User: What shape does this take?
Amino acid sequence: MLKDIHPKLPMRNKRITKEFYINRLNFQELGNVDYDGYLMLKKDSIELHFFEFKALDPKENYGQVYIRVDDIEKFYQVLLDNRTSIHPNGNLEIKPWGQKEFSILDPDNNLLTFGESI
Assistant: This one.
């Protein structure tokens, strides 16, 4: 029986990734052990894990995660208040498939799309 999923995304610099997710998206570091080259972050009931990939070319990174949220408009405003850049093609809007969505890119070009059913 499947229970949870914890996507693993590439990161070039652990400090930069950690600061972005904590300061811009309000995640928290998970666990009490600092693993070399690995980062685990949590917000509410989701976890994102990151592995170090120093040679990553962000222009060639296609890492993507779709995250379902409640009260997407409030979350969108929190990100704007934290000066988080919204993807140029990913502003908050209602999609034809019945989701209200927006997208951002993290420092390594991992695409995070947030959606709420309408």
